[in-house]
TrEMBL record, chain A:
<dbReference type="InterPro" id="IPR007257">
    <property type="entry name" value="GINS_Psf2"/>
</dbReference>
<dbReference type="InterPro" id="IPR056784">
    <property type="entry name" value="PSF2_N"/>
</dbReference>
<feature type="domain" description="GINS subunit">
    <location>
        <begin position="67"/>
        <end position="167"/>
    </location>
</feature>
<dbReference type="InterPro" id="IPR036224">
    <property type="entry name" value="GINS_bundle-like_dom_sf"/>
</dbReference>
<dbReference type="InterPro" id="IPR021151">
    <property type="entry name" value="GINS_A"/>
</dbReference>
<comment type="subunit">
    <text>Component of the GINS complex.</text>
</comment>
<protein>
    <recommendedName>
        <fullName>DNA replication complex GINS protein PSF2</fullName>
    </recommendedName>
</protein>
<feature type="domain" description="DNA replication complex GINS protein PSF2 N-terminal">
    <location>
        <begin position="4"/>
        <end position="63"/>
    </location>
</feature>
<keyword id="KW-0539">Nucleus</keyword>
TrEMBL record, chain B:
<dbReference type="Pfam" id="PF02724">
    <property type="entry name" value="CDC45"/>
</dbReference>
<keyword id="KW-0131">Cell cycle</keyword>
<feature type="compositionally biased region" description="Acidic residues">
    <location>
        <begin position="169"/>
        <end position="184"/>
    </location>
</feature>
<feature type="region of interest" description="Disordered">
    <location>
        <begin position="165"/>
        <end position="199"/>
    </location>
</feature>
<protein>
    <recommendedName>
        <fullName>Cell division control protein 45</fullName>
    </recommendedName>
</protein>
<dbReference type="InterPro" id="IPR003874">
    <property type="entry name" value="CDC45"/>
</dbReference>
<comment type="similarity">
    <text>Belongs to the CDC45 family.</text>
</comment>
<keyword id="KW-0235">DNA replication</keyword>
<keyword id="KW-0539">Nucleus</keyword>
Amino acid sequence: MSPTPEELEFFAGQEELEIMPRFDCPTMWLISGDLGPFKAGIPNKVPLWIALHLRAQNKCKIIPPPWLSKAYLEQLKELEIKSPLFTKMPSEHYMAMAKMIFEVCPQDIPDADCVKLLIKDIWDSRMSKLRTAVLTFIDKGASWAKVDNLTQLEMCSIRPFFTHSLEQLHRFRKTIQVARLYSAGNSSEEVRRRLRM
Amino acid sequence: MFDVRDMVYGQWLLEEQGRSSVPPTSTKMLVEHYRRDFIERIVGHRLIIITNQDVDAVCTVKILTTLFKTEGIQYILLSCSGLTELKAKYDEYNSQSDRCLLINCGGTIDVLDLLGNPPREKLFFILDYHRPLNILNYYNTTGQVVIISVLESEENIPEFDEIFREEPPDSSEEEDDHDDDEALDANGMNERQRRKTERRAQRQLYTTWVKKREHLLFTYREHFYYSRPSALYGLEIVWGMSRDDMESVWSAIVSLTDSLVLGRLPRPKYCEYASTVNDHILRISNANQLPRDCLKIRFERDLFLFLYRHWSVYDSLKTTPYVVSTLKTWSQDGHRKLKQMLAHLGLPLSEVKQKYANMSLDLRRQLVEMFSSQVVVENYKLPDLVFGSFVAEIGFRPKFNALDVQLATLALLEEPDPNKTEEERFLLAVLGLDVRNFEKGGIEKAKGMMKQVNNQVQMMVEMKLVQEVGPFLFVQLTDSMIDFNYFKRPAGIPLLANFLQHAGIRAGKKGWRQSPWLIMIPYDQEYFVAVGVQPGAFEQADKNIFPEVFRCIKGKMGEDVVGDWFDGWAILVKNQKRQVFADLLLALSE
């Protein structure tokens, strides 16, 4: 089945992130991969879920990814607002990652309030584009569309509505078709069998 | 041939020799490096934490347990109110672990003796702000007791050689030796007589040394006082492990404010510690602005009015001990003076009587300026109404300052709910210190507590309960109409005691300033609490001689006196023996 937002957050946790550990530890051999030797003060790349776990215990400091900064996001927001299509996001899970980092350690990110606001703005503009696209899709009665650069979470947010409403539309169209056929008076065996389907 | 066993044996010999050359008791039992001497000795063992029940212990527990949780150190948290409970709890749980941390208890008593000389593997870490430290804790032969403290210059712990010395052999043992065949030497004395005079000289030196030692110990133990709050040491431990954050700093601040309000620290010391804490704050918060969601603490000048942000300014002025005693608001005259002051400052009465949150914003902003102005300081003699305090804010919630949080914690700790045991109250107080879930319940209880205090003081002044007997001033509080369940234990008693003293001095004669006070608070059907207060205790924290005095009285009265608490200036006395107690006290003061 399609992934829920919680599951998407779980997948987002596997993205790599840089941390500055405050402790020393030799290599750890975990099932999903190796955690390289940690030395206090030397930056290290680890999956996001490990980084947040350590940060909650105050054992490391998170170095924010390069795209999670005020300057970069301002540029991205400009591009997003100007272009009619969706622009490429710096990371497939930008929303989930930002949310998880802000939950645990907003103080590690410079200008955290502005960054939060910018991400929300970008999200809002993309969602509004998505909604207009869906509206156009339904109006035209099209049967397929190609969209680039849409992230999983955005898809997830319209998926239940979109599929459900398309299904309803299909039912309506089917009923109209049946009604037309019926009123045309064509009562051959073949047609009646097809109508009962 | 090169044998490994030879190498090992050689190493072992070296170690043995090295060990024997170091005298066992010359190393002082202080923690010098927090990680090496304290944390690394606990890691891997389960820790038993036994605490006293006061606000400082609550804060220290909060800081250290957060550290232990992240480090994966298991701990058992017990709280006790006195010596007997300490022993009982220890006996119950000591089989579970051999590392024990005592917070604010056990520093002034011989711990190993009290707990029945536990075996060598059990280590005791003492983090106590009661002084003077017991000599046997400081110089202990088995190395089991470790004190987490930095000695300050005024502590004057006597040197090792001045207290411990081997007793020279008795000269009378040599009496039955025969001196027939000893040769005479140049001085005309024979060998045996020379040895005898030597020993007599040694004996005399020894007796003078003993006298000096007794005098030294007496002066050392005479004065009881408090040093740096334990929560500040907790903060340093956490800092040493690089696990510090704003929450720990906030707990340390609450503890520091507690020491100030209850008169455990003099103001200059408070300012000194406050500036060190401020350095911690500056270090932890980044150079750039902290985001909204994080706890932000600021050191700023704030009013020394209890609970004014949660009450109206007028109510707060009428309840704060400092203002009430200076202006004497229990009388009509004082009441008028208070209203006059408000009018002088330009604060309309209608505004000031409203809840603080509903006061107009301009007035709220100007409050600090107004109350520190010349008018207030000179005309109404209230110079200390504004002091350096810490204010915390988080998210978009209203700010709260350390004074209110400290009073709320004290109220939670001391609340007179018969359904809760003392341990439960302690744990509730620890939970209530959490900044993000700060409850208003504690504040309401604090308001009740302050109202009680004020009622007591009013009653004392109106019914003239102060009696001058000898050099002391006795105050006998009755529990006829108003209960004071909040003040049954040394955690909260200083609030009442200092207030009574200040008010009594203002209401009574000028000469009362120099006398020590003895306040008798009913405890329950059988006992009352006798509290000894030094002269001038309300103005600045002073060394208290009452613990020693009470100890002598206990020696004479035996079972009728229960001197269980770690703060020795308050003891329980049987109700019927009140007169005996008073007589003994007067006799001792001669």
